[in-house]
Design a protein that fits this description.
13 helices; 12 strands; Aspartate Aminotransferase, domain 2; binds pyridoxal-5'-phosphate; alpha/beta; 2 domains; seven-stranded mixed β-sheet; three-stranded antiparallel β-sheet; 13% strand; Aspartate Aminotransferase, domain 1
């Protein structure tokens, strides 16, 4: 064995993200000449306000391209604190804010900071695969909270309580939720916070989809007066501002946590990219009034997906309140078509119908079996075209079977 192929035990815990595996398969399908309509990727398709994007150019022209503080520009951290305080009636101070390299780096750093060897951390299943992967990487044990269709895939406090042991250290919460689009209501958020208080747990609250709520409102864990004792809030610009390539994340926590995050950030990436920090100053000045139009458009897309799904045999879907995902139950369809599992169904749909929908098992384990994630980051006409392709494929498949 060569020296460069002997890896650390910890690195063996990391796994590829199912979504990226499928995006690669979609590329292969396209290389074979298949025209693919992709409901696979989790990034919005709109262009954010020009005056914000133009600031990146301005930053470069002004030579704003050097190292900055590991936690981001101080004036930006102050702006973010003010913005969140207005939004959630919170009392966040500038020194309690860190800008990170995407929300993902914030998730990674907070999990490795708070998880000790043998600690149990509750993660949603289905859920964003990074959570369980990084808990294992940190030497902890992910405990899966299976999100149930009958609860609209919400993380229900009573279910979580049953999972707690003397080794439980924390809970990772993600609302609105990837991949199901579920959104916690006020009672859920209060119930989870109550559990955290009673059992002295941390809550890593990934609120990256906070602005994509179509019915009711978003309840942030920052709204509690005692958030500092339990909560690490994570968000960023990737989804609301449609700039995942900027790698701009936000982490809010008590000052002691931020000091530790500074150590991690310094040793991993020195600082988040300077030009995007400069542009973000503008973003927080503009606010997100303009986003109302985007939300309305996305709501129409969601409703279109639900309408189209209702026309398919063997498929049923919970109406999701948030994010930009629908997570239909395709168990019956998988049976009708004679596939072993949803993974086979996804592959066949991609290579035979030219439509990419991710299998629920990409997120990341058991809870997603029998479900698919549909990301509706496409215009309504394209959504309709995608479903038309599926219907034609299904008709020919079912005809073939009846012969
Ligand atoms: C739940 C969740 N958290 C975090 C991220 C990552 O965000 P970022 O691109 O800012 O790292 C994503 C992206 O898909 C996500 O779905």
């Amino acid at each position: 064995m060569s020296a460069t192929t002997i890896y650390s035990r910890l690195s063996e815990q990391l796994e590829p993200e199912g979504a990226f595996v499928y995006l690669d398969l979609a590329r292969q399908a396209m290389e074979k000449g298949i025209k693919v309509i992709s409901f696979g990727i989790g990034q919005p398709d709109f262009v954010p306000p020009r005056e914000f994007l133009d600031k990146v150019k301005e930053a470069i022209d002004k030579n704003f391209i050097r190292y900055i503080s590991p936690l981001g520009l101080p004036e930006l951290r102050a702006k973010i604190a003010e913005y969140l305080n207005n939004k959630y009636g919170a009392d966040v101070k500038p020194e309690e804010v860190a800008v990170t390299v995407g929300a993902k780096a914030a998730v990674f750093m907070s999990i490795v900071l708070l998880t000790r060897m043998g600690d149990e951390v509750v993660v949603p299943d289905p859920g964003f695969p990074t959570y369980e992967c990084v808990v294992r990487y940190a030497g902890g044990r992910p405990v899966f909270s299976i999100l149930k269709e009958e609860n609209e895939f919400r993380m229900v406090p009573d279910d979580i309580e049953k999972l707690l042991t003397k080794n439980t250290r924390g809970i990772i919460v993600n609302s609105p939720h990837n991949p199901t689009g579920s959104a916690l209501d006020k009672d859920d958020v209060e119930g989870l916070m109550e559990l955290a208080r009673r059992r002295n747990l941390f809550i890593i609250s990934d609120e990256i989809y906070e602005d994509y709520v179509y019915e009711g409102k978003h309840y942030s864990f920052l709204s509690f007066p005692d958030w500092r004792d339990h909560v690490i809030y994570i968000s960023g610009l990737s989804k609301t501002w449609a700039v995942p390539g900027f790698r701009f994340g936000i982490l809010v926590a008590r000052k002691e946590v931020i000091n530790k995050i500074e150590l991690l950030a310094t040793n991993i990436y020195s600082c988040p990219p300077a030009p995007f920090q400069y542009a973000a100053l503008k973003a927080f000045e503009i606010g997100i009034e303009w986003f109302n139009e985007v939300r309305e458009d996305y709501r129409k897309r969601r409703d279109t997906v639900l309408e189209e799904l209702s026309k398919l045999p063997g498929v049923k879907a919970v109406k999701p309140r948030g994010a930009f995902y629908v997570f239909p139950n395709v168990k019956q369809l998988t049976n009708i078509l004679g596939y072993k599992n949803v993974d086979e169904l996804s592959r066949a749909m991609l290579f035979e119908a030219g439509v990419l929908m991710l299998p629920g098992t990409a997120f990341p384990l058991y809870g997603g079996e029998g479900f698919m994630r549909i990301s509706y980051v496409l215009p309504v006409e394209t959504i309709r075209k995608g479903f038309e392709k599926i219907r034609i494929w299904l008709e020919s498949r079912l005809e073939g079977e009846n012969k």
